[in-house]
């Protein structure tokens, strides 16, 4: 840990730091506050650019859940189901794969790990056609839960990668003791390693959740049915009474609703997320 | 859809193929595919460059000790936490030509005379996309760089300070070489990500010609126009182009790394 010493800094240097900090904070959070403010405006109020709404109202939020053509509540439930399933599956598959890749030495282990990692460099759109055929063949087309399968393409590589590096660092004695006590691989994974893996599981799980929650291309292409959509597509398709009237207030209300839990999660688990993001970059 | 027919390389170099298409009388780069390749690379290079510079700046700032540092660090995370679609919509509204707050502020300060249609005007649209992407992904860069900065040994800095070395020189000669491996990883990650950009452009500028990316082109041909074969040819070309870019990046970074060793 290294931080420059402030006390020896000249006064203008300190002022510059605070000014910069204020600027960075403002640029980072202003758009979101503006979105909140817009979501509380309706009618002519929308066209004034003041940050404080003249007559704040929750009508946009109410409308989101009461207009039948765009069942936003349904979309939120879809998104939650999809994201939670993605997290559960990628953690299950990730932990078991990481045990094999991190703990058991077999021929071609490095190659396998490299292949898994290289999948994360795949452009999503390159698998679009093949995935489309596969989804249709499996009867998953037009179902929100069918999105779980394509989402695993981008959550699994980093989950496996981070968990494998984490698993490698765990002491070998633990495993040996468990084997001596007659534990099979399944019990070793779930009863010995799982409790130790928690920090890595939380960070990879959160990153997988965020990735699945935000995904747009697959969700836009594989789901057409209005009831089965997930939230990002839903927001991109919110429309007004006529083609030429864009209901910005409603769009911002939906945006705020979708983003608040994420911001909450990210801020609550700041350290975990940063360590998950940097696990590959700094150590690897 | 009729029965599939094997057409060889027609989708790549045939009469209406991606490359060597005689109907593109104004040359390859004037066709939609050429434009989308150029857009993608312009977008990726400029946005990653800016993100790296700003990310470095923010990371250096967060590595200082000052009151409210944790608050600033939390604030910096906010753009990263916002879904891409949401940030595209938010900025789309802020950059609205008639009622957008950005035009209002710029006009208020006397920086522009007339309101600018940021997302529709071809001259501005791509740079608007770049700006929004920079806003959204600078935190990612900053966090990765900050993590690298915090692993640096403090004795180097103390020694430099005792010797009275100018801070800028310390930055160039000590900090930058030490964080270079992490910086390169972050840049490569971001570059690969930026080369496959789709959602931001699709939502912010409705994927029109002046901003269409390669991914946008593939999706338009494959899904909107229903040319499965042609679209797949384009997606394969895109995959190869990104693969080539990855290899070039890896090579460059390894070369630079081995120079030090």
SSE topology sketch:
The complex is a heterodimer of chains A (284) and B (261).
Chain A: H1 11-39, H2 59-66, H3 72-103, H4 109-119, H5 128-137, H6 148-169, H7 172-180, H8 185-214, H9 217-222, H10 231-237, H11 248-268, H12 270-283
Chain B: H1 10-13, H2 32-62, H3 69-81, H4 84-94, H5 101-108, H6 122-149, H7 154-162, H8 167-195, H9 199-204, H10 214-224, H11 228-260
Helix pairs in contact in B: 2-6, 2-8, 2-10, 3-6, 6-8, 8-11, 10-11
Helix content of chain B: over 70%
Q: What is the CA–CA distance across the termini of chain B?
A: 58 Å
Give the overall shape of chain B, derived from the CA principal axes: globular
Q: In the residues of chain B, how many domains can be counted? A: 1
What is the CATH C level class of the largest domain in chain A, in words?
Mainly Alpha
The most extensive interface, with participating residues per chain, is: A-B, 62 and 77 residues
CATH level-two architecture of the largest domain in chain A: Orthogonal Bundle
Number of strands of chain A: 0
Basic shape of chain A? globular
**Could you name the CATH topology of chain B?**
MetI-like fold
| Residue runs with pLDDT of under 50 for 5 or more positions of chain B | 257-261
Radius of gyration of chain A: 24 Å
What letter string, H or E per element, gives the SSE order of chain B? HHHHHHHHHHH
Would you identify the CATH architecture of chain B?
Orthogonal Bundle
Largest sheet of chain A: none
């Amino acid at each position: 840990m290294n931080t420059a010493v402030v006390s020896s800094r000249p006064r203008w240097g300190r002022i510059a730091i605070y000014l910069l900090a204020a600027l960075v904070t403002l640029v980072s959070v202003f758009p979101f506050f503006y979105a909140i403010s817009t979501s509380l405006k309706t009618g002519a109020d929308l066209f004034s650019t003041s940050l404080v709404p003249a007559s704040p109202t929750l009508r946009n939020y109410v409308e989101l859940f009461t207009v039948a053509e765009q069942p936003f509540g349904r979309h939120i439930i879809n998104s939650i189901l999809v994201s939670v399933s993605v997290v559960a599956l990628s953690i299950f598959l990730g932990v078991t794969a990481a045990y094999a890749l991190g703990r058991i030495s077999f021929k071609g282990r490095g190659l396998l790990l490299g292949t898994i990692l290289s999948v994360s460099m795949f452009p999503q759109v390159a698998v679009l056609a093949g995935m489309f055929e596969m989804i249709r063949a499996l009867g998953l087309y037009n179902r929100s839960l069918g999105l779980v399968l394509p989402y695993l393409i981008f959550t699994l590589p980093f989950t496996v990668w981070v968990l494998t590096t984490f698993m490698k660092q765990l002491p070998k004695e633990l495993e040996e003791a468990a084997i001596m006590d007659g534990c099979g691989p399944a019990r070793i994974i779930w009863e010995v390693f799982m409790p130790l893996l928690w920090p890595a599981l939380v960070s990879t799980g959160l990153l997988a959740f965020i990735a699945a929650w935000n995904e747009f291309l697959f969700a836009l292409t594989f789901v057409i049915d209005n009831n089965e959509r997930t939230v990002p597509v839903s927001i991109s398709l919110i429309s007004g009474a006529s083609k030429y009237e864009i209901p910005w207030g409603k769009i911002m209300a939906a945006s705020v609703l979708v983003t608040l839990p994420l911001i909450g999660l990210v801020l609550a688990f700041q350290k975990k997320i940063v360590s998950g993001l940097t696990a590959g970059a700094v150590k690897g | 859809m009729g029965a599939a027919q094997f057409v060889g390389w027609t989708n790549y170099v045939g009469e209406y193929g991606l490359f060597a298409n005689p109907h593109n009388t104004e040359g390859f780069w004037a066709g939609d595919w050429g434009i989308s390749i150029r857009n993608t690379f312009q977008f990726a290079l400029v946005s990653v460059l800016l993100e790296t510079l700003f990310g470095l700046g923010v990371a250096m700032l967060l590595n200082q000790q000052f009151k409210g540092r944790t608050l600033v660090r939390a604030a910096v995370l906010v753009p990263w936490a916002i879904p891409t679609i949401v940030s595209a919509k938010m900025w789309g509204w802020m950059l609205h030509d008639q009622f957008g707050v950005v035009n209002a502020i710029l006009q208020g300060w006397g920086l522009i005379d007339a309101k600018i249609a940021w997302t529709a005007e071809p001259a501005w649209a791509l740079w608007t996309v770049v700006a929004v992407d920079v806003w959204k992904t600078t935190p990612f860069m900053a966090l990765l760089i900050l993590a690298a900065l915090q692993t640096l040994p403090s004795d180097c800095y103390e020694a430099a300070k005792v010797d009275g070395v100018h801070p800028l020189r310390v930055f160039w000669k000590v900090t930058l070489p030490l964080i270079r491996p992490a910086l390169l990883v972050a840049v490569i990650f971001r570059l690969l990500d930026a080369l496959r950009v789709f959602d931001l452009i699709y939502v912010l500028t409705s994927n029109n010609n002046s901003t269409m990316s390669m991914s946008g082109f593939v999706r338009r041909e494959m899904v909107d126009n229903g040319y499965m074969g042609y679209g797949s040819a384009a997606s394969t070309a895109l995959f190869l182009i990104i693969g080539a870019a990855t290899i070039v990046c890896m090579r460059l970074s390894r070369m630079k790394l081995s120079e030090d060793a």
